[in-house]
Amino acid sequence: VQLQxxxxxxxxxxxxxxxxxxxxxxxxxxxVKGWFRQAPGKEREFVSAxxxxxxxxxxxxxxxxxxxxxxxxxxxxxxLQMNSLKPEDTAVYYCAADIxxxxxxxxxxxxxxxxxxxxxxxx
Length: 123
Prior knowledge:
Low-confidence stretches: none
Structural class: mainly beta
């Protein structure tokens, strides 16, 4: 499966952005989807994940209460709604997927990655 992320941009602290990630290719398979980010000079970190059905989600503590992950399987798209953005949210955001048709969400072990989309939050 191929993943294409979009929606990044330059915003001010307190603003909102919505990232999208469209999957193409073997979309008939069931995938758990995740968002990760990598800030300059830092390692890539987990942000959020959602099970194939959307029934389970997981968030990093740093974004809990501000970010919301969702998906539309009919459109092969996963979203990350980011509210109350902070300068420390500045990073390249990556979407990822892994074959899993169960209710699981997890933070590591993803096999498919999209290119990143840059989010810059100014103070």
